[in-house]
Write a structure and sequence with these properties.
The chain is an alpha/beta fold and 402 residues long. It is built from eleven helices and eleven strands. The protein folds into two domains: 127 residues, Diaminopimelate Epimerase, Chain A, domain 1 (Roll), CATH 3.10.310.50; 166 residues, Diaminopimelate Epimerase, Chain A, domain 1 (Roll), CATH 3.10.310.50. The chain is 41% helix and 16% strand.
Length: 402
């Protein structure tokens, strides 16, 4: 019995790594990332990998052992489901060593010198800002280093993001509708609404739409637009931007928040705002959706809480309670009616001993099969929590895909 218990204990210990965090793009058996950070990084890397055509993979390993990182990386690459064209970053958390390896077509994009620059920046970011921010910056720098298909950045994007210095812009547009989602009248109405909210709450607020995220994760693109265009109130550049991306395969929105506003527009409250915005975005009613979004943002600033979305669950519960009450009332009234009642059985009309069952059959007539499509969740894009802009400024926020 003791041997059996020992064996079960050993098997349990061996099975524990199976519950480690792992996706196609992030492998974290030691749980160095929180579940929120893991989910957010996975979403960002999936979006970027799809846009660039290279799989970017982070392997945060605690089981490298004595083998070289290059062997460990290749074994992981060869046995994973990632694309043949991939850039794999391996961080050995036990030996505290890091390296990156390019495979397939990625070798043409990332030579030894480029990978060396990426790793130098990663080490600096890891020491200064921590693992999650360093991984995000590595991803952004890796995109910038792509040589075969360079992305033309917008006019407001600085040539050297690392040398960028924050500033306060004068008369910056409050509505930048580069995706042409709104008419001129709608833009004017939204700008007036935003201006009124800014004056009421004392925090900056801007709306930005575009047909692309320029190869960046949506949250980083939103943060970069806000920072590089000089938005923000006060020394901490407090405020937020709603970014709506209409890029094919990358459609979604994200609210990026900076400075003191992060203490008010928390992920929990923004997630409730997203609940109310999502139906309008899905059916393309952008003006009405953004108008309601701005009203909800004002409510959060004034009360600390977003309006609650009445869920389908509570609607069904309310309906069930109402139907149950009606059914009970009907049953009571009916029981008081004096009507002719049906007999449950026909035994009163059968002569004893006159009925003999000789044969019985079970006949299969037909089969009915119904199939229901399993829908995928629409919320995966963006996630929430803290992150860094391309220049390293601290932001937080929430967003979704549609």
């Amino acid at each position: 019995m003791k041997r059996l218990m020992t064996l079960l204990f050993v098997l349990l210990i061996l099975a524990i790594p199976c519950f480690a965090q792992e996706s196609l793009f992030v492998y974290d058996p030691g749980d160095q990332l929180t579940s929120e950070e893991f989910s957010e990084l996975t979403d960002q890397m999936e979006t970027v990998s799809s846009a660039v055509g290279i799989d970017y993979v982070f392997c945060i390993a605690d089981d490298v052992g004595e083998q070289p990182l290059s062997d460990y990386a290749y074994d992981y690459y060869a046995n994973s489901d990632c694309s043949p064209d991939a850039l794999l970053l391996v961080l050995d958390t036990e030996q505290m060593t890091v390296n990156a390896f390019a495979y397939g077509e990625a070798e043409a994009y990332y030579d030894d010198a480029t990978i060396g620059d990426l790793l130098d920046q990663f080490v600096d970011d890891y020491s200064a800002q921590g693992l999650k921010q360093a991984l995000e910056r590595f991803l952004i720098n890796a995109i910038s280093a792509t040589q075969a298909a360079p992305v033309e950045m917008p006019f407001w994007y600085p040539e050297d993001v690392h040398a960028f210095e924050d500033f306060h812009a004068e008369n910056a547009p409050l509505v930048a509708d580069d995706a042409d989602l709104f008419t001129s009248e709608e833009e004017a109405a939204l700008e007036a609404q935003i201006r009124s909210i800014r004056e009421t709450v004392g925090h900056d607020l801007v709306l930005y739409t575009d047909v692309t995220s320029y190869g960046l994760p949506r949250n980083v693109c939103a943060a970069d637009f806000y920072q590089f265009n000089g938005y923000g109130f006060g020394d901490d550049y407090s405020g937020s931007v709603l970014f709506i991306c209409m890029e094919e395969g990358n459609r979604g929105w994200y609210t990026a928040v900076r400075g003191e506003s992060q203490n008010i527009l928390t992920y929990e409250e923004l997630n409730r705002v997203d609940d109310r915005l999502e139906p309008y975005m899905k059916r393309g009613d952008y003006f009405k959706g953004v108008t309601g979004y701005l009203n909800d943002i004002l409510t959060v600033y004034q009360t600390g809480h977003a309006p609650r979305q009445l869920s389908v669950k509570w609607l069904l519960i309310s309906l069930a309670v109402g139907l149950a009450a009606a059914a009970i009332t009907l049953a009571v009234l009916r029981s008081k009616m004096k009507v002719v009642r049906e007999a449950v059985h026909a035994t009163n009309y059968l002569v004893d001993g006159s009925f003999h069952l000789r044969k019985s059959y079970d006949i299969f007539l037909y089969r009915s099969v119904s199939r229901v499509k399993r829908e995928k969740s629409s919320g995966g894009g963006g996630g929430g929590g803290s992150f860094s802009s391309s220049s390293g400024a601290s932001f937080s926020g929430s967003g979704r895909s549609f």
